[in-house]
Amino acid sequence: MDTAPDLIEALDARARRRDGRRDFFRAMGAAAVVAGGAVVATRTSPVAAQSAPTDADILNFALNLEYLEAQFYLYAATGAGLPTTLTGGSGTPGAVSGGRQVNFTDTAVAAYAREIAADERAHVEFLRTALGTSAVAQPAIDIGVGPNSAFSAAARAAGLIGAGETFDPYANDENFLLAAFIFEDVGVTAYKGAAPLITSKTFLEAAAGILAVEAYHAAIVRTTLYAKGIATPALINATEAISDARDSLDGSSDLDQGVRPSGTGASTVSNIVPLDPDGIAFSRSAGQTLNIAYLNRMSTDRGGFFPAGVNGTIRTSAAN
């Protein structure tokens, strides 16, 4: 599906609104955060930590995610990915499948893309420097275009395209924004979920800084989709569909929201910042994050955007 009109038509045909989005969090306290075999108490569930991963394990897990984001945004913004000097390290190195420059028509979206691309490259450089010789290599990454690509599989799971159809994230501004939406909310929740596991105050401060940047990025993408969705409601419907698909992968908890506003007329309230009923951002464990990255709700060590899995000790998705 290569044009915005075709995409919008498909989204209109398949769009649906979620009922009772926050019911789980209204009824239940926050669950324990599980990452790489560690269980850490949340605000309402005091559970003893067991077999906690090291700070290096956590930073390397984050580095895998930053490789993915950096490659997508750099290709979309500039037509070229990370230099090879920023992709080596321990583990099994992999190549990037696909990726190309977007012919942006909205100058603001083009500027956002270039800014986010530079930020994600800086995150890769920072994490690799912090880890030194312990840094893992970039794994194989699928950001390509085709009916069997990770982006098409994700769009198909959300009901945005049909069997055998293709979602091209580089076709236009709107497709790029929806592809970015797949990543950004997940990055925010992943960093928040990992924060309680980091023991070094220095690394924790750095992780908090990256989390803040990812939250800014998510807000840019969500705000732009919301603004464009005022004129083209199918874009807002698409964020709801993607959110539903992510929640179908990472377990029974409702850890996701699209950008659909609440209220009507002068009482309309936007939903740029996805929060729980206490006004706090959601958390995802490493396993839940990999459910989405691998596009698989079951326990596995590869698939989706990482065809051969991620590098490092934290590499298995949760069993949902």
Model description:
This protein is mainly alpha-helical and 320 residues long. The chain has one domain. The protein is 47% helix and 3% strand. It has nine helices and four strands; from the N terminus they run H-H-E-E-H-E-H-E-H-H-H-H-H. The chain is globular. Residues 247-271 are annotated as: Disordered. It comes from Sphingomonas spermidinifaciens.
Which labels suit this protein?
two-stranded parallel ribbon, 9 helices, 3% strand, 320 residues
Neighbour order of strands in the largest sheet: 1-2
- Beta percentage is under 5%
The CA-CA distance between the termini, in Å, is 31 Å
Shape: globular
Compute the number of strand runs. 4
Biggest β-sheet strands, sense, barrel: 2 strands, antiparallel
The low-confidence runs, each spanning 5 or more residues with pLDDT under 50, are 1-6, 10-50
Number of domains: 1
Radius of gyration: 18 Å
Structural class of the helices, strands and pairings? mainly alpha
- H and E string: HHEEHEHEHHHHH
- Give the count of helical stretches: 9
Mean model confidence by pLDDT: 87
Portion of residues within helices: 40-55%
Organism: Sphingomonas spermidinifaciens
Protein name: Ferritin-like domain-containing protein
Pfam family, one: Ferritin_2
Region (Disordered): 247-271
